[in-house]
Amino acid sequence: MKRRLLPLSYWAVVWFIRLCLRLYVRGPAVDGIENVPREGGAILVSNHLNNADPCVIPAILRRRVVTMAKKEMFKWPVVSLLFKFIGAFPVDRQGADLGALRQAQKVVNDGLLLLMFPEGTRSRDRQLHRGFPGTSLVAYRTGAPIIPVAITGTETVPWPWVFFRPFIGPRVTVRIGKPFYAPRAERITSQAAQAATEELMLHIAELLPESYRGEYRAAVAARAADDAGRRAAERV
User: Fold this and answer.
1) Most confident range, picked from 19-28, 98-107, 146-155, 165-174
2) Which pTM value belongs to this model?
3) For residue 11, which phi and psi values (nearest 5 degrees)?
4) 7: cis peptide before it, omega within 30°?
5) Can you give 38-93 as a three-state secondary structure string?
6) Contact 7, 86 (CB under 8 A)
7) In this predicted structure, what is the pLDDT of residue 2?
8) 30 exposure class (CB count in 10 Å sphere: 0-12, 13-18, 19+)
9) pLDDT of residue 58
10) How many whole angstroms separate alpha carbon 103 and alpha carbon 116?
11) Cα 183 to Cα 192: distance, rounded to the nearest angstrom
C-alpha cells in the first residue's frame, strides 16, 4: 500500500514546490532537459548552494527523483515531512554511511533517478569544491550513467524570509549535461573512485559559469584548450 501511495504523495509535493518556485524565484530556467533519459536508473550529480537545491532539481524534471540528503534535514519540521512524502533518504556525512550507499544502489537498480551532491555540503562561497567518492562507488557498483547538473542562483535565496517576498526572488538556472559513465577500472579501488570523482566534478564545473568553478577552474580551462587543439589538428 505504501508503494502505491508514494508516487501520489511525490507528485503532490513536486507540484507544491513548483508553485513555490513560481511565487518566490525567477525561473528556474532549464537547459538540457533532453539529456535526462525517459526511463532506467541514472545518477544525477549536482553542485550544492542552498538547502533548497534538493527541492528545486526534482521539481524541474518529469520523472520521479529520489534524493540522498544530509540526515540533519530530516529533523527539520516541515522539510522532514516533505522528504518523507517524496521518499528521500538520509546520509550521515560524518563517516562512511554504508547503509545510505546500499540504499542509493537500490534506488538506481530499481530504475529510478538518484540525486546526489558529491561535495557533501553547501558551498558557502558558491565555489565548486572537491567531491567525496560515494557517488563514484554507486556508479561503479550499478553501472548506471551519471548526469551532471549545475545550479546557480539559489545561493541568494534567504531562508525563511523568501516566503515573505513573493515575485522578487533571485533568478535560478539549472543546466543538465549529457550522460557519461565512470572511467573503466579493473578493480574498484579508492584510487579509481577518487579519479572517477574528479571526472564527474569536472563535468559539473564545465556546466557552471566561470565564476562558480572554484577548484576546478584551471582544469576546465586546460580541457577546453586540449579540445580546441585537437579540433584544430583534425582540420589540418
Assistant:
1) 146-155
2) 0.90
3) -70, -30
4) no
5) CCCCEEEEECCCCCCHHHHHHHCCCCCEEEEEEHHHHHCHHHHHHHHHHCCEEECC
6) no
7) 44
8) middle
9) 93
10) 12
11) 8
d(CA 115, CA 190): 22
In this predicted model, what pLDDT tens digit does every residue of 126-157 receive, in sequence order? 999 999 999 999 999 999 999 999 999 999 87
The answer for residues whose C-beta is within 8 angstroms of residue 146's C-beta and 6 or more apart is 42, 43, 45, 135, 139, 179, 180, 181, 182, 200, 203
Which candidate, 100, 172, 101, 112, places its Cα nearest to that of 140?
101
Alpha-carbon span 106 to 125, nearest angstrom:
33
Grid cell listed for 62: 518529469
Query: Mind listing the pLDDT tens digit for each residue in 165-200?
Result: 676 678 999 999 999 999 999 899 999 999 999 999
Give the integer Cα–Cα distance in Å for 207 and 204: 5
Amino acid at residue number 83: F
Q: Could you give the domains of the chain?
A: 2-235 (3.40.1130)
* All cell numbers assigned to 63: 520523472
DSSP conformation letters of the chain: -HHHHHHHHHHHHHHHHHHHHHHHSEEEEEE-GGGS-SSS-EEEEE---STTHHHHHHHT-SS-EEEEEEGGGGGSHHHHHHHHHHT-EEE-TTS--HHHHHHHHHHHHTT-EEEE-TTSS--TTS---PPPTHHHHHHHHH---EEEEEEESGGG--TTGGGGSTT---EEEEEE---B-PPP-SS--HHHHHHHHHHHHHHHHHHS-GGG-GGGHHHHHHHHHHHHHHHHHHH-
